[in-house]
Amino acid sequence: MNELSSGWNHLRGIEPLSLCDWPGRTSCVFFLGGCNLNCPTCHNFDMAWNMERLPLLSREDMRSFLRNRAKWLDGVTITGGEPTTAPNLGEILYEIKKISKLPIKLDSNGMLPEILEDILQQGLADMFAIDVKGPYEKYPALSGQAVTAEAAQKNLDRIFKLAEANPKAFYFRLTKVPILTDEDVETAKGYLPDGFDLTIQNYIPPRRDHALADNEERRSAGNMVD
Ligand code: SF4
Questions:
Q1: Ligand 1 center to residue 186 CA distance, Å?
Q2: Would the CB of 35 count as within 6 Å of ligand 1?
Q3: Which structural domain, as residue segments, surrounds residue 152?
C-alpha cells in the first residue's frame, strides 16, 4: 500500500491538548479524514468529505509530537470524520500506542462494527465512544440517506453486544440535532444495554453553506451503508 492510499493519508489534523474529548483525561486528538455517512448536520464536513482541503499531518510529525508530548498526556483521542474508514487503521493505532504508551479512545459512528470488533480484539484501543444518532427509522434522514434503518439497527446491535461483553470499554453519545424530539432521545436511550447511559451533546450547526451543497452532491451519488 503506498502512502497516498494508506490510512496515513487520512491524518488531517491534531489538537495538541484537549480537556473535554475524553472525559476525565487530558488527551491529544488526532483527526482522520473521510466518512461513510453524509449527515446533513455534520459539524466537521471538510474533515468528513473533503479531507484533501486540509493539510496532511505527516507520519513523522505525529511520531515527533508523541515522543515530545506523551509524558504530559493521559490519553490519545482518535476522531474524524469517521476513523474506521481509514485504511490500515490498526497500523496507525499500533504506532501511536507503541510510541506514546498511552491509552487510546476511538470515536465512531458505529456503522463499521467489524472494524471496531477487530480493533478491540487486538487491544489497539481502550475506549470506544459510539454515536447513537437517534431512532433507527430516522437514520436515513440523520445520515443523509447513507444508511438504512435496518443497517443501523444491525450495526448498533453488534456494537451493543461488544459493549455488554466489555462494559468498561464503551460509552454512547447522541447529538440532539433539530430533527430529534425528546421522545426520539428516549427511544435511542432504550436501545442501550443495561448499565449504559446515553450522553446527550448539544448540536453545533454547520459553519459554511458549502456543507449543504457538498452534502447534496454526495447524497445524489447515493451510496447506502449495509
Ligand atoms: S458520521 Fe455524520 S456527523 Fe460524523 S463525521 Fe460523518 S458525516 Fe459528519
A1: 22
A2: yes
A3: 7-219
